[in-house]
């Protein structure tokens, strides 16, 4: 009896697994079609110089413009893209669209494009990136790549070579979500990154837990000692912005300055950049 029950159990279990595998395969196929059909599009969020309050660039954040489900955030599809081996294809599509858009923006505005650490294991990455830049006419000096350090880089040698080729072309590299992931000081050194992006959790905590100021200061001090730039993510109000600026962080990003918007929504920001005037924080524009 027990044996029969066990077998029945096993059957149900295996049917579930089969079903899950089938669903994953369908999802992956659908995601591939979405990338190829241009449904994965760039949204843009301001990167602001904390001294002058001027827009210096935009971070490119992927969205899935799903025909039935509307605009989907990266949490709905980035992991799946990594598992399905589609992250490189998605990156190329996003980089191409963003480079085309940025080629029409005021000169000097940079774009920061997110990348999976998996891509640092792909020796053809720098060739692919440089091809896309030359096809779209965007200077490599205007591109920064943000490595989201949520995964371990297995083959450090390949990662170093890939980054060295990108750097030789003038492309800069930032370590994203610094302080929360797997990045050690050794990684900062070996990968020779140009900028640390202080994770939003440290910045948001400033308001409620004053001791987190010490962590933010420590990261800024570390960056300064190593000659690296710093960006604070997740600035949601004026007080946090002032505090972060006083600590010596160069750049800021967050809902205070503006939420991510599609290309059609960028006009007011691009006008400020073209005229060299500070951008009007979205929070204050709403309050007015
Ligand atoms: P990230 O690179 O750290 O990007 C910042 C995230 O914080 C974005 O979420 C942004 O909308 C959000 N954010 C910005 N300011 C604020 C704020 O003031 N408050 C709060 N609560 N959130 C803020 P999003 O767009 O959902 O992206 C999430 C993550 O998905 C990104 O984190 C990045 O790791 C990943 N991602 C986005 N686009 C791509 C992509 O094209 N490729 C890859 N590999 N990853 C991507
Ligand atoms: Mg990022
Ligand atoms: Mg980040
Ligand atoms: Mg983050």
From TrEMBL:
It comes from the Bacteria. The chain holds residues 296 to 583 of 585 of the full protein. This is EAL domain-containing protein. Residues 24-274 form the EAL domain.
């Amino acid at each position: 009896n027990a044996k029969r029950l066990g077998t029945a159990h096993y059957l149900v279990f295996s049917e579930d697994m089969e079903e899950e595998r089938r669903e994953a395969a369908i999802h992956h196929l659908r995601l591939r079609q979405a990338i190829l059909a241009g449904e994965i599009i760039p949204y843009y969020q301001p990167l602001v110089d904390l001294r002058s309050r001027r827009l210096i660039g935009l971070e490119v954040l992927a969205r899935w413009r799903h025909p039935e489900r509307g605009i989907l955030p990266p949490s709905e599809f980035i992991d799946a893209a990594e598992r399905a081996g589609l992250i490189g294809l998605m990156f190329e599509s996003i980089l191409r669209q963003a480079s085309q858009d940025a080629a029409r923006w005021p000169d000097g505005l940079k774009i920061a494009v997110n990348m999976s650490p998996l891509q640092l294991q792909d020796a053809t990455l720098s060739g692919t990136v440089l091809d896309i830049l030359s096809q779209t006419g965007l200077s490599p000096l205007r591109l920064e790549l943000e490595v989201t350090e949520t995964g371990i880089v297995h083959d450090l040698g390949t990662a170093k070579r890939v980054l060295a080729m990108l750097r030789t072309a003038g492309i800069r590299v930032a370590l994203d979500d610094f302080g929360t992931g797997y990045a050690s000081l050794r990684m900062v050194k070996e990968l020779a990154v140009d900028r640390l992006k202080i994770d939003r959790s440290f910045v948001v905590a400033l308001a409620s837990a004053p001791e987190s100021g010490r962590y933010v200061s420590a990261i800024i001090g570390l960056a300064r000692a190593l000659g690296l730039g710093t960006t604070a993510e997740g600035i949601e109000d004026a007080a946090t912005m002032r505090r972060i600026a006083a600590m010596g962080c160069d750049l800021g990003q967050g809902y205070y300055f503006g939420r991510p918007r599609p290309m059609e929504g960028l006009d007011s920001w691009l006008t400020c950049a073209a005229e060299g005037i500070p951008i009007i924080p979205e929070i204050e524009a709403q309050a007015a």
